[in-house]
Amino acid sequence: MPQVTSGEQPYDDIPEPEPPTPGGAPQAQTDAVDALLDEIDVTLQANAEQFVRSFVQKGGE
Amino acid sequence: MTATEVPPPLEVPASRRIFGLETEFGLHFRTGAERKVTSEEVAGALFHSVVAWGRSSNVFLTNGSRLYIDVGAHPEYATAECDRLDDLIALDKAGERIVGALVADGERRLAEAGVVGEIHLYKNNADSAGNSYGCHENYLVRRRSDFTSFAESLLPFLVTRQILTGSGCVVGTGASARYCFSPRADHMWEAMSSATTRSRPMINTRDEPHAHADLYRRLHVIVGDSSMAEPTALLKVGATDLILRLLEARVAMPALALAREMQAIRDVSHDLSGAATVELADGRSLTAVQIQQQYLDLVRSQVGSIIEPDPTTERILDLWARGIEAVRTGDSSAVWTELDWAIKLRLIERLRSRMGAPLDGPMVARLDLAYHDVAPGRGLGSSLVAQGLMATIVPEEAIVRAVERPPETTRARLRGDFVRAGIRAHRDFTADWVRLKVVGDEGRTVLLKDPFRSEDARVDALIASIEPADPRVD
User: What is the SS3 string spanning B413-471?
Assistant: First the structure.
């Protein structure tokens, strides 16, 4: 892990985030969801059942 | 102030609070290897590079945060003390990248040991077998003699908060399968206690302030879901802080004590319509929407008096209101880039309409895991942000900075600077939440009991004592 940084900048002046545009462009939004699902299509199809079942985490906390 | 004098506790305004988030990551190794691989072996490989520089699998980082392997062989990351919500979110997101950055080396080591596979790290709260692990929120509160009733008065808020800040999950199978608000809700077994694993409470009462114990104590909330979307994290911690501020100012809370918290938290989680009612101790029945609305109205009534208006508070209140409205109307589109349960629901609904995937089927469950995966290139987070499907709060530069640097306005700055100096000087040192010490340097333990104090001559002296004498080094 690199430890040294230089020229760090304070980030007090965080710009106001863009307001969300929920109703703005529904088709574009649906296209974005489809693009994302296309991206992970192979992952979702690849033996999803075995994948999910194999994730067992011992208890924590 | 001399280099040996212990500074007195700072007087801080009531609006200033220390926050921290602890995240337990689910560790999942996928391999086709014949030989059995234990989760301890995977965690060991994952943390090999950490042990190499820190000589331990339990270290404090240059950003002031703590990284370790917890019970059950899963990585845990606890953010440093923050007194600004933007810092907290940046540090929490930095933690995802810090543990994610361990994956490649861990896989290489496992491959060298004969097991080729992929490590997945989930910032979620449950596995496929129904085990749960947590995201613990820490709020430093002013010590008071009536802590129990103080904490109890938060319970109706915490039980119903999940309609806003739940991360969303599928519960049940077949005809009874449904999308619920919170994967954590079904794993809560009591309202308050000092236990965590044996009997999981919503508020853990262990009194570990990591600060002047006569002034402060820690409120340790363990009922919440881990947050992927930054606005969800902002609302989760921010709204809770606002309620705490009213409680600390002795503002009377609405009389909303619940008759049966454990029943209520499950009933609220399981009803996405928000119409399910919970029974109050006084016999009334209210919905989670009505209860959250009362808390929001109360907070709003104090903006300008107890609560100073500022952009962050405005943002919290705005999202709080839209979140309540989204549940009340059944139209999640008002929050579907901001609240985890709504972001995830939208993906699942689209997946189901495209593929005909059943809600309780493996593809939906696989998508759910991908939503929470922080292993580089394996999770959906960066794609969701890039596609405009997940809003952010802090700029990318702030997260990149928080991977290395502590917040500037709390004790974390002292710890982070000390850790950085120790690593740079190749000195062995120990650090924890309240102590800094150079190994082999008797008498040089510096005790830091004020989490609000970001400057301390004793730490400056300690750092100066271990830094290379030659300024050209470094």
Answer: HHHHHHHHHHHHCCCCEEECCCEEEECCCCCCCEECCCCCCCCCHHHHHHHHHHCCCCC
A5 vs chain B: nearest CA distance in angstroms? 7
Domain presence at residue B218: no
Residues B296 and B427 both lie in one domain: no
Rounded to an integer, the average pLDDT of B465-469 is: 74
The complex's ipTM?
A: 0.89
Domain of B208 in residue numbering reads as: 141-197+204-212+224-372
- Pick the closest to residue B19 from B90, B77, B80 (CA basis): B80
Residue A27 touches partner B, C-beta closer than 8 Å: no
Q: Where are the alpha helices (DSSP H) in B283-411?
A: 288-301, 311-329, 340-355, 362-372, 381-386, 396-404
A60 interface with B at CB cutoff 8 Å: yes
Across the range A25-43, mean pLDDT stands at 86
Q: Where among B355, B372, B389 does a domain terminate? A: B372
Question: How far is it, in rounded angstroms, from Cα A34 to Cα A47?
Answer: 21
Q: Is the pLDDT at A24 greater than 80, yes or no? A: no
pLDDT tens, B44-60? 999 999 999 999 999 99
Which sequence positions of B are flagged as catalytic?
70
> A47 vs chain B: nearest CA distance in angstroms?
9
Q: How confident is the model at residue A60 (pLDDT cuts 50, 70, 90)?
A: low
- Inform me whether the C-beta atom of residue B67 falls under 8 Å from chain A C-beta atoms: no
The answer to whether residues B433 and B362 belong to one domain is: no
Beta carbons of B133 and A60 less than 8 Å apart: yes
Asked if the structure places residue B63 within a domain, the reply is: no
Are B347 and B300 contained in the same domain? yes
Nearest to A58 among B39, B367, B383 (CB): B39
- Are the Cβ atoms of A45 and B131 closer than 8 angstroms? no
Instruction: Find chain A residues with C-beta within 8 A of B395's C-beta.
Output: 11, 14-15
User: B106 touching A, CB under 8 A?
Assistant: no
